[in-house]
Amino acid sequence: MRTRMLFSCILVVAWMVENLHTMRAASLSGPFPNKQLVDSTRLALDFLEEQVSFWPKENGCFSCHNNSDAAQALFKAKQFGWGVEAGSMASTVDWLSNPERWDKQQGDPNVGDQQLADIQFASALVRAIDAGQLPGDKWSPSVARLLLDHQTPDGNWVIEKQDSLGSPAAPGNALATLKAWIYLNHAPIEDTKESVRKASGFLRNMSMENVSQTAAKLMFIRESGVQAGGDAVLGLEYLMRSQTTLGGWGPYPHRPPEVFDTALALLAMLPHARDERIAMIMNRGLSFLIAEQLPDGSWRETTRPSGEESHAQWISTSAWATLALLEIHQVQKRETASKAQE
What we know:
Elements: H1 2-19, H2 34-59, H3 67-79, H4 86-96, H5 114-130, H6 141-150, H7 173-186, H8 193-205, H9 211-224, H10 229-242, H11 259-269, H12 276-292, H13 311-341
Helix pairs in contact: 1-10, 2-3, 2-4, 2-13, 3-5, 3-13, 5-6, 5-7, 7-8, 7-9, 9-10, 9-11, 11-12, 11-13
């Protein structure tokens, strides 16, 4: 049996190697009309707008644990041309533009994690600049120094000494390192080349033992443009065999699906969405996300262990799911525009 399974995996990998760069076009429209994706995304954005505006007023902080991810989804929506109320992001934009205040939160100091805060706020700053909500001169050497102070000699950022799966509001070491690397790699700041090189090496050589690590590595390959066809194939094969019968992904193969892990898998597979098999798999994952959305536009929180209650995880899970919907809709728009030109 093991020999047969191994042979089957080899055949899948061989097929993907052969087709990775010569992919057949396929539609990501899925088994539901495009309007359903648009309506689901709009509902999610309305929910996040309310949350991003509400949290600082009521809690006196900008919560690295949830408000940052929610704001990043809104920035991405703005970048893609979705209508987002400027007032819902105003206080967050002001906060991000003053990194000297990032360690002066007014919230409960007992739940703070300054390293996580610096990484999350730096990640949000990237999104804000990309969306045109902050000028390009807001790339800050002081933010780079904050990140460099936390980097280990191995090149990564350690949120937890015993690396875990991470969760939506508290990403594991793989996703935390990816976020820090993205800021340092994008910022036109001197004296960060060695840090970027070490972080790139860590992400490039990182093992893929769960969906979170696999997604982080595939997203790094996409962002960096490195020639890593073999790693991309192995990562895609891992995600293909990890999908559940319900269409979503759990943290590992054969685990019940979770919204957060499903969003990560979909974001990681985006560069290969024109491949017919990948598109089919993504359609099933997208159907799962839309089916799991709650009437208020949010999603039930993904927690570790599963089934617990957490406001931070609720908001952050909803933000990750919204990011996946936004990115997939953007792929659909490009496909539609391309077909119109043919």
